[in-house]
Every structure is written in C-alpha cells, then in structure tokens.
C-alpha cells in the first residue's frame, strides 16, 4: 500500500466498525502478527497462501460473525416513511393505509428489499411467476402502473423510478 499500511487501516476500520478483518501479508515476523491481532484483525495470514485454508478461514469467520441461523425476516420494510407490512400485504404512509394484491406486494417487497439498486424487469418477473414463458411483458407494466396509482392516491409520488432499458428502483 503506497501511503498507509494495513495496521493503520485496520485501526481506522475498528474505530467505526466490527466487520471481520483478515490480514494477508508478506510480512512474516511474530511482531507483525501480534501487532495485527492487537490492532483488531481476526486473522493474520502470511503469503504464500493455501487458497483452501484461506477460504476455510473466511467461511469460519463469516459463520462466527454473522450467525445466519438467528436472522429473522422483518415484519415491516420501511423507506422514507413508507411502510410495507409483510404479514398483512398492506402499505402505509403517514395516516393512510392501502391493501395490495399478491403481485403488487411482491413487486414492492422486491424493490424495497433492494432499495437504491436497479431491479431488472426479468428479476421481478421471476419473483412473480416461476415460469415466464406464458407471461406477457406488458403484464408487469400494468402491475407497476396499478401500484403507482395506489401510491399516488395516498400522497406518494415518484416512489418507483423507471430506469429505461434496465428495470425499476426505489431511490
């Protein structure tokens, strides 16, 4: 690294986050290893690296850091005071609440799950219909128009953005 070394960056990261950190270094002195671990690294691995061992350490660290078995789906997704209620297939904004059809709900759920990212039309269609072969592309457009109309009725404008030739997004 040209200006700062891994010890510096590890210290900077640890000031703001507890993300897993693995040192992968050509430095091989015991002092470097001790310093890396004391700065907050989870592992210090010397080059050359056995890729199988590296992958095993990464997987173990991720398993320990992010206990996937304990993750629970939230009951509500929220973005800019728009609440999508997963248990009831409803959407609320301020004091207003609307009922959503199954397809409207699935479209909003996918877009809100991936807020800030473009979700392709194909991806949304796969969520809605497992077999796309019988689905007309216009069907998705009709569903988006219906959602936008429902959102406008309760005061939400420009919530779903069309990204021409790419898909849709909530930003």
TrEMBL record:
<dbReference type="InterPro" id="IPR001867">
    <property type="entry name" value="OmpR/PhoB-type_DNA-bd"/>
</dbReference>
<dbReference type="InterPro" id="IPR001789">
    <property type="entry name" value="Sig_transdc_resp-reg_receiver"/>
</dbReference>
<dbReference type="GO" id="GO:0000976">
    <property type="term" value="F:transcription cis-regulatory region binding"/>
</dbReference>
<dbReference type="Pfam" id="PF00486">
    <property type="entry name" value="Trans_reg_C"/>
</dbReference>
<keyword id="KW-0805">Transcription regulation</keyword>
<dbReference type="GO" id="GO:0005829">
    <property type="term" value="C:cytosol"/>
</dbReference>
<keyword id="KW-0804">Transcription</keyword>
<dbReference type="GO" id="GO:0032993">
    <property type="term" value="C:protein-DNA complex"/>
</dbReference>
<keyword id="KW-0597">Phosphoprotein</keyword>
<dbReference type="GO" id="GO:0000156">
    <property type="term" value="F:phosphorelay response regulator activity"/>
</dbReference>
<dbReference type="InterPro" id="IPR036388">
    <property type="entry name" value="WH-like_DNA-bd_sf"/>
</dbReference>
<feature type="DNA-binding region" description="OmpR/PhoB-type">
    <location>
        <begin position="74"/>
        <end position="171"/>
    </location>
</feature>
<protein>
    <submittedName>
        <fullName>Sensory transduction protein BceR</fullName>
    </submittedName>
</protein>
<dbReference type="InterPro" id="IPR039420">
    <property type="entry name" value="WalR-like"/>
</dbReference>
<dbReference type="InterPro" id="IPR011006">
    <property type="entry name" value="CheY-like_superfamily"/>
</dbReference>
<feature type="domain" description="OmpR/PhoB-type">
    <location>
        <begin position="74"/>
        <end position="171"/>
    </location>
</feature>
<dbReference type="Pfam" id="PF00072">
    <property type="entry name" value="Response_reg"/>
</dbReference>
<keyword id="KW-0902">Two-component regulatory system</keyword>
<dbReference type="InterPro" id="IPR016032">
    <property type="entry name" value="Sig_transdc_resp-reg_C-effctor"/>
</dbReference>
<feature type="domain" description="Response regulatory">
    <location>
        <begin position="1"/>
        <end position="62"/>
    </location>
</feature>
<dbReference type="GO" id="GO:0006355">
    <property type="term" value="P:regulation of DNA-templated transcription"/>
</dbReference>
<keyword id="KW-0238">DNA-binding</keyword>
């Amino acid at each position: 690294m040209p200006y700062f070394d891994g010890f510096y960056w590890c210290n900077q990261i640890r000031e703001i986050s507890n993300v897993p950190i693995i040192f992968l270094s050509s430095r091989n002195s015991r002092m470097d290893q001790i310093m890396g671990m004391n700065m907050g690294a989870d592992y210090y691995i010397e080059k050359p690296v056995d890729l199988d061992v590296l992958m095993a350490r990464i997987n173990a660290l991720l398993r320990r850091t992010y206990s996937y078995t304990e993750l629970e789906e939230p009951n509500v997704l929220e973005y800019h005071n728009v609440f999508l209620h997963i248990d009831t297939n409803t959407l609320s904004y301020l004091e207003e609440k609307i009922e959503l059809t199954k397809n409207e709900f699935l479209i909003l759920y996918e877009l809100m799950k991936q807020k800030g990212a473009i979700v392709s039309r194909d991806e949304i269609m796969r969520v809605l219909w497992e077999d796309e072969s019988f689905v007309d592309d216009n069907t998705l457009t009709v569903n988006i128009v219906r959602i936008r109309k429902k959102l406008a009725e309760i005061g939400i404008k420009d919530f779903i953005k069309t990204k021409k030739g790419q898909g849709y997004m909530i930003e």
